[in-house]
Every structure is written in structure tokens, then in C-alpha cells.
Write a structure and sequence with these properties.
4-stranded antiparallel beta sheet, 3-stranded antiparallel beta sheet, 1 helix, alpha+beta
């Protein structure tokens, strides 16, 4: 019986140490690192991100504008504020990615994208007003 007890303790200790050795993913909030340029003449907002660190960053592909300027299902956390009003981005289904869906940004590298005003149903009356884009962006070290 003593041997059985010892075997159970050893197995439990092994499982516990295996679980505690799992590497945690380091996340970075890059929301304040995004450069936002209002291009009223083109009816869009340009967004830029540059990795000035020595680590590679990975962001979810649905969290950065695709080539058409859409984000995947983001109306709950992406919007433009202007004149005390909020204009949420349109929810879009930009597709399903089965594997390797992160955008990798190498040290010294960057991304540029754009968000058309039409994605926010921004009225013509506020095109030339000052705007603030709310675009949360989380990356992991990869």
C-alpha cells in the first residue's frame, strides 16, 4: 500500500511540474503605438504600426485592416469619435482562417492599412471635423 501511495504522489508531482513549466504568452498592448492619419480628401483613415523592438510581434489577422479596409466583427471595440458622436465600424465577416492566422511583424518592420469612412457610415457633414479612432490592438511576442 505504501508503494501505491508513493507512486500516486510521484505521478501527481510530475503532472503538477509539467503544468507549471508551460511558457506563458507575453502580450503587448499596441493601441497607443498605432499612428493614425486622417485622410479626409481620400475619405479614409490610414493606420501605421512599426516594430521598434528586438522581438517579433504577432497580431491576429482579423485585428488589422485587410486590403479592402475591413476588420472582422469589430463593431464592439472599433469606432470613430467626432463631435461628441460615435460611429462604430461595420461588422464584416472577413473569412475564416484555419491555420497560421497571425500577422508577423519582424523587428524593424511595420504595417500600413486604411479604414474607409464608409466602414463607419461616417456622414459627409463630419468629413472635415477632427476625429479620434479607437482601435485596440494586442500583439504577442512570437
Amino acid at each position: 500500500m505504501h508503494y501505491l501511495y508513493c507512486a500516486i504522489v510521484v505521478i501527481f508531482a510530475s503532472l503538477l511540474s509539467a503544468c507549471s513549466s508551460v511558457k506563458s504568452i507575453r502580450e503587448l498592448d499596441l493601441s497607443h503605438s498605432v499612428i493614425v492619419i486622417d485622410q479626409a480628401d481620400k475619405r479614409r483613415i490610414e493606420v501605421q504600426l512599426r516594430n521598434e523592438t528586438s522581438d517579433a510581434w504577432c497580431i491576429d489577422s482579423g485585428a488589422w485592416p485587410n486590403v479592402g479596409g475591413s476588420l472582422s466583427f469589430s463593431s464592439q471595440y472599433v469606432w470613430i469619435e467626432t463631435g461628441g458622436r460615435i460611429f462604430r465600424i461595420t461588422d464584416e465577416n472577413t473569412g475564416y482562417c484555419a491555420d497560421q492566422c497571425s500577422i508577423r511583424i519582424l523587428p524593424g518592420g511595420g504595417l500600413t492599412g486604411h479604414l474607409p469612412y464608409s466602414e463607419f457610415a461616417l456622414p459627409e457633414s463630419v468629413v472635415n471635423d477632427q476625429k479620434q479612432l479607437v482601435l485596440p490592438l494586442i500583439a504577442s511576442i512570437c
